[in-house]
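Please produce the structure of this protein holding zinc ion.
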Amino acid sequence: MASSDASNDQAGEQPMGRETGMVVVGQRERRAERRSREHIARASTDTHRRRRKREVTTGRRFDGAPRRPARNAAARTHRARSSHQHITSARAPWHIERAHSVSVSSRSVLSVLALLTTSFASCAAGPPAQERVEATPSARALASPPRPVLTTVVLVALDGVRWQEVFRGIDPVLAEKSHMAQDDRDADLAPNIHRLIATRGAALGADGAEIRASGPNFVSLPGYTEMLTGRRSACRDNDCAPIDRPTLLDELAASSPSPLAVISSWERIERVVAREPGRVVVSAGRTHGATRDALRYDGEAARLLDDAANASSWPGGDDFRRDAATGAIALRYLREKRPRFLFLGLGEPDEFAHQGDYPGYVGAIRAADRIVGELVRALDDMADRSPAALFVTTDHGRAASFRDHGGDWPESSRVWLVGAGAGISARGVVPMSLPHHLADIGPTIRALFGLARDESRSAGSVIDELVTTGAP
Ligand SMILES: [Zn+2]
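Below is the modeled complex.
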């Protein structure tokens, strides 16, 4: 989060234009993109294999559902030919499980069937062969489903995690320099995120599919402002005053009484949550957040909050809260209160990176990925009543040297975005002709919730490559 470029230029609102000109994806980019896909496919397959091995031992699937009894080859073949049978016989992930609900309209069920078909048909490398399904003619005819009505969106930000680690894995040069153990280098860095990309989601930010912070100073508070407002921001550093324009959370609060929450390790995110933060449950850092006492909804929740408040801020400073504590508080709140929107901000990767500690940075990414896995499980468990979407992103990238970021290092504008769930195309790594920006995440979430488009000049655009249904 620390900035080496502390420009305090509070310039006025800037129009949010896409960079002009088509980006021609050449041979080099296509090769690089293929490498990213291969890395994710390999990582996901390895993870899946390990998970299936564990399932044999435990008799449970990763989402807690009982493992299905083994079937012979003929039965598997028959099942693969019948997508309908697959849907009704397997426990579906959270973005399709409404197919089981008797209360949903037939139109919704059809859209869910189409989502399922799209999800598995585009899964080039994720699930094992016996879980793949072919798109039936009737399912293909449903290729334009109506916009789903989401009840939950979770947005996770991993502070200062580079696209290189997400799509290519551990940097061999930095690993060598820091004497990382071989086992550490070999293990998949983000198995849960990779599995999301490979089996039920889509990713932007690999080579040939750029998404950037708008800058011009690529530090945390401007990045989070972009994310939570859906607009390019005038905030230029980490000392910006509290936001005075409505954010995505203000608009969500105005549209529904359902709970909204922002739970973050870094305290300053509090400044950009909402113009009227009293309507949002905010716990930022160990003790910040005027509404943090709303998280004392029972004894266990209060204990989580207090234990974290009394702990050290290391590896951060000031009021920083450890990611493990932030993640535990957010996960429990998600399960117990089912908020309409949950923002989870994890900050340790950036803290370790500023210390030049590559193994620490890698370890923090691994820990954050485990929290993402827990979120997926929580959303799976809530699937019967809460069609949901999950996004994972970062506020800024890093310099080529890894340690720094900011306006002095233009390459640190490169970020990434992973989305999965209801209304999200399961396309894997998405090629794009034009770069997107962090300011496009808010409009995409607005579209998924069915909110009206933000007409301000600085507003971003819906990321059409991610959503299945387009803007309202
Ligand atoms: Zn930083």
